[in-house]
Amino acid sequence: MTTDAALPVPRTALVTGAGRGIGRGVALGLARAGWAVALVGRTRAHLDAVVEEVAETGARVTVAAGDLIDATAVLDAVARVETAFEDLGGVGLLVNNAGVIERAEVPFADDDVEDTWRVVETNVRGPLLVTRAVLPGMLARGGGRVLNMNSGAGVNPGGAYTGYYVSKGALARLTTMLDAQYRDRGLRVLDLAPGVVATDMTGGMPAHDGRTAWTPVEDVAELVRAFGDGELDDLSGRFVRAGADTPASLRAAAERLLATDARRLRLPTWGEDDPLA
């Protein structure tokens, strides 16, 4: 990739939902690659368990617990992380990983709309609040990177989990908006679909009963690491998928990807004569 020079941002990462699952795997992967990591989430006991694992890698680690849909709690957690990383230059990479899914695998009309809204609120309001809290520091320092943990649900329809699909579509739009508004100020943003990683959430989904092929969480962590280190900066505002993409394959496909403006959320039209074109 040659379009964008990698931005010189601190190798410090704030990972939400870091107490288990993909968030834990990403935090450990970054720590093993020499990053300082901040573990942020709602349940302190889960975060503390991961702190011990990160400490074994020799990486610097800090923790800040809080409800990520509570604006005051988010501001407090981010302020504590920024203070902890002040001598390192502040937060260089934000990984918006925390998320939930509906309790029942049913179509919208059969679901509890309050549960649907719980999912949308958690998966959209949380990243909005955390990003808004981190963004001023990044912009003041001349740049930073934001990775939104998305899903194939963000770009494809499905027969169940309406709130989850809606929330991931909204998250993909947030990625494109941040890229459009702040690319010129040094921000880079990426949607990463992790594939199907074996977690408590996927393990409880009937759709994955009997599944034997899972995406290794290490593959997810490696894409996060590559983005954090600036290797994928040209893909800002776009969508990648662990288990299908690797840093090397994305670099190899970059010229074609950019030439065709692929992997970006938009409305396809029928041609140049379409009034929406």
From TrEMBL:
<protein>
    <recommendedName>
        <fullName>Short-chain dehydrogenase</fullName>
    </recommendedName>
</protein>
<dbReference type="InterPro" id="IPR036291">
    <property type="entry name" value="NAD(P)-bd_dom_sf"/>
</dbReference>
<dbReference type="GO" id="GO:0016491">
    <property type="term" value="F:oxidoreductase activity"/>
</dbReference>
<dbReference type="Pfam" id="PF00106">
    <property type="entry name" value="adh_short"/>
</dbReference>
<keyword id="KW-0560">Oxidoreductase</keyword>
<comment type="similarity">
    <text>Belongs to the short-chain dehydrogenases/reductases (SDR) family.</text>
</comment>
<dbReference type="GO" id="GO:0016020">
    <property type="term" value="C:membrane"/>
</dbReference>
<dbReference type="InterPro" id="IPR002347">
    <property type="entry name" value="SDR_fam"/>
</dbReference>
